[in-house]
């Protein structure tokens, strides 16, 4: 009997409030569609990842690193021609409910990539407060989803536990930043590494 090999998948570990994950979101979804790859989107608690892997939260970084980040954000905003608010109002928002909303939608078999990209765009392109349940409900409606039902599910202990578990899984797989992509065992840190990921996907046909 001929054994059919399953198609490789992209594991996407990211912080839902990550500027770099936002900048990579549309290209990741487009890359996956181009090569007919499935993407497993896994929001994580990045501060927990940092605590285990030596990462430094943004407010604790030197002023030189913080100001350079703005330079890079402007460069990528222009390169990708994506709207980007450098300092969204109230940043950083609490990310738990938004992350759990993604897992809630995932548990129902929904298109997580589109919803996730929409949440990040609400923050980084529109400066909306994605810690606000009303804002998240509006984003769901914009994607023709039942926001109230998904938010109720997002608050369930099992969904919160999944966020915690995927954060632990990420650390176990060597993830230390956001966004982080794993494809066929190869790790890629940062949206600026998507070209390398695509090269590998193209070789696989």
From TrEMBL:
<dbReference type="Pfam" id="PF01323">
    <property type="entry name" value="DSBA"/>
</dbReference>
<comment type="similarity">
    <text>Belongs to the GST superfamily. NadH family.</text>
</comment>
<feature type="active site" description="Nucleophile">
    <location>
        <position position="18"/>
    </location>
</feature>
<dbReference type="InterPro" id="IPR051924">
    <property type="entry name" value="GST_Kappa/NadH"/>
</dbReference>
<dbReference type="GO" id="GO:1901170">
    <property type="term" value="P:naphthalene catabolic process"/>
</dbReference>
<dbReference type="GO" id="GO:0006749">
    <property type="term" value="P:glutathione metabolic process"/>
</dbReference>
<feature type="domain" description="DSBA-like thioredoxin">
    <location>
        <begin position="10"/>
        <end position="199"/>
    </location>
</feature>
<keyword id="KW-0413">Isomerase</keyword>
<protein>
    <recommendedName>
        <fullName>2-hydroxychromene-2-carboxylate isomerase</fullName>
        <ecNumber>5.99.1.4</ecNumber>
    </recommendedName>
</protein>
<dbReference type="InterPro" id="IPR044087">
    <property type="entry name" value="NahD-like"/>
</dbReference>
<dbReference type="InterPro" id="IPR001853">
    <property type="entry name" value="DSBA-like_thioredoxin_dom"/>
</dbReference>
<dbReference type="GO" id="GO:0018845">
    <property type="term" value="F:2-hydroxychromene-2-carboxylate isomerase activity"/>
</dbReference>
<dbReference type="GO" id="GO:0004364">
    <property type="term" value="F:glutathione transferase activity"/>
</dbReference>
<dbReference type="InterPro" id="IPR014440">
    <property type="entry name" value="HCCAis_GSTk"/>
</dbReference>
<dbReference type="InterPro" id="IPR036249">
    <property type="entry name" value="Thioredoxin-like_sf"/>
</dbReference>
<dbReference type="GO" id="GO:0004602">
    <property type="term" value="F:glutathione peroxidase activity"/>
</dbReference>
């Amino acid at each position: 009997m001929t054994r059919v090999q399953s198609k490789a998948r992209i594991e996407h570990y990211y912080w839902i409030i990550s500027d770099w994950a936002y900048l990579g979101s549309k290209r990741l979804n487009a890359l996956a569609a181009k090569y007919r790859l499935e993407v497993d989107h896994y929001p994580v608690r990045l501060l927990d990842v940092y605590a285990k892997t030596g990462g430094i939260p943004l407010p604790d970084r030197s002023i030189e690193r913080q100001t350079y980040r703005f330079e890079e954000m402007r460069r990528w905003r222009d390169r990708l021609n994506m709207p980007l608010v450098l300092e969204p109002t109230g940043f950083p928002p609490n990310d738990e409910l938004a992350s759990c909303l993604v897992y809630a939608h995932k548990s129902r078999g929904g298109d997580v990539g589109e919803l996730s990209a929409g949440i990040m765009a609400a923050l980084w392109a529109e400066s909306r407060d994605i810690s606000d349940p009303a804002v998240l409900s509006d984003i769901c409606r914009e994607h023709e989803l039942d926001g109230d039902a998904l938010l109720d599910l997002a608050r369930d202990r099992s969904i919160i536990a999944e966020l915690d578990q995927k954060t632990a899984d990420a650390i176990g797989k060597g993830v230390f930043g956001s966004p982080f992509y794993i494809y066929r065992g190869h790790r890629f840190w940062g949206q600026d590494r998507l070209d390398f990921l695509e090269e590998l996907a193209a070789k696989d046909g």
